Amino acid sequence: MNRRNLLKTLSLSLGATVVSTDVLARLAENTYSYRIPENPLHKPLDKPITAITCGAGNRGTVYGNFAANFPDQIKIIGVAEPVPFRNERYAKKHNIADANRFNTWEDVFKKPKMADAVIISMPDNLHYEPCMQALKMGYDVLLEKPIAPTEKECRDILALAKKTGRIVAVCHVLRYAPYFVKMKELIAKGAIGEVISIQHFEPIEHTHMAHSYVRGNWHNSKETTPIILAKSCHDLDIMKWVINKKAKRIVAMGDLKWFKKENAPEGSTARCTDGCAVERACPYSAIKEYVDRNSRTSVLDIPENTTDRKAAIREKLKTSDYGRCVYRMDNDQPDHYITSIQFSDSVTANFSMEAFTSYHDRRTRIMGSMGDMVGDMTELVVHDFKTRQETKFIPKAEDVDGYKNSGHGGGDWLLVRDFVQAVAQQNPALLTSTIDESIESHIMGFMAESSRKNGKVMDVKI
User: Fold this and answer.
1) Do the domain assignments include residue 449?
2) Which parts pass through the membrane (predicted)?
């Protein structure tokens, strides 16, 4: 038996439970690295599926990059994007014909159906109408989360997907991350006995909060979606998914405490570029973040061949929200948010979303009757109460663009891989995040926001 086949037959014993896994390397005593094995239901494709991308920003680019790297699986044949720079860049990367380049999503659906699927990766408030139109025209859909800004719209999409029989894959990409896949597998096989409770933590990172939810596209919850959905529907979803329990009740608290005008330092100005007296000392300085660190600058749409990139960034900061003082924005998203959830079988969970951290990547603790597990997305440690031994699992994902830098633990491209197969085989069972599966966590989010605003414990009714 060669090493590859030998490794595939190995299993790990945790107490009385045997947990199957693809072990690639034993790194140390009771420490293993692993990858997610290929899905045995996947089949070779006679030809790639075709898709049109509506929204060529960050998320559309991540999913599109899968197609660029795996042209035998999916081909992007159209793009709708109102920003000329993004439209041009995306069309060039995917060799999209001029006839299939559109300024708006509405233009896509003025033409007869011309692809197998539509990727909807536009702003949150622009998910509902194009998704409904795509379903009516017979497209399958890869839909960026959140599904839609309101509970009614989410339920409308679910109802139309069922009526038309089309596939709607919601981009709950954490369900595809090797870290969470292993967590779910271990729980299902009884590695920690009966699940009793969960503590789950999403550290946003202070500069990410300032970038996306104070200055950025999601700074105003009324124009987009509340932060519990825009940022943390991933987390509500992953908690229920890994333990396979239904949410029953939820209560939430949180507020916008720091990023407000009354906290603006003396000497600060409307923009960081306006001669702010405290800019060099401010941890949220746009100049330090975008110019000095060259961080998160893709949103500024600066061509790669720009001669003086720093000067170009400074000019963008003078006219866009990304250059405005974080204390003087019209933002309303809470910068700290906690929820408590009652799941079925008396399982309880606490979730905390925090802006003020120096780090990101989710942290999770799950307490069971026969053990517990603790992880931070880079490793998962399982402790067995009976043997008092620990076993450490270290997930591995492909070291390619779209995995490495997304913060989703490799889930982005693994989702697209399964979506391709689901569309090609017309079998939504190949996906773990169909709209049927994903809507519950959205209802949890809507109920959490209602609880936060009204001070009541809310029932979760699917």
Assistant:
1) no
2) none
- The half-sphere exposure of 22 on its side-chain side, counting CA atoms within 13 A, is 14
- Residue 173 within any structural domain of the chain: no
Which range of residues forms the domain containing residue 296? Answer: 261-323
Residue 364, beta-bridge partner list: 200, 375
pLDDT in tens, the chain (462 residues): 343 443 444 445 554 444 555 555 788 889 999 887 778 899 999 999 999 999 999 999 999 999 999 999 999 999 999 999 999 999 999 999 999 999 999 999 999 999 999 999 999 999 999 999 999 999 999 999 999 999 999 999 999 999 999 999 999 999 999 999 999 999 999 999 999 999 999 999 999 999 999 999 999 999 999 999 999 999 999 999 999 999 999 999 999 999 999 999 999 999 999 999 999 999 999 999 999 999 999 999 999 889 999 999 999 999 999 999 999 999 999 999 999 999 999 999 999 999 999 999 999 999 999 999 999 999 999 999 999 999 999 998 764 444 444 457 788 999 999 999 999 999 999 999 999 999 999 999 999 999 999 999 999 998
Q: Is 228 within the bounds of a domain?
A: no
Coil, helix or strand at residue 413: helix
Q: Within a domain: residue 272?
A: yes
For 312, the 3-state DSSP assignment is helix
What is the number of structural domains in the chain? 1
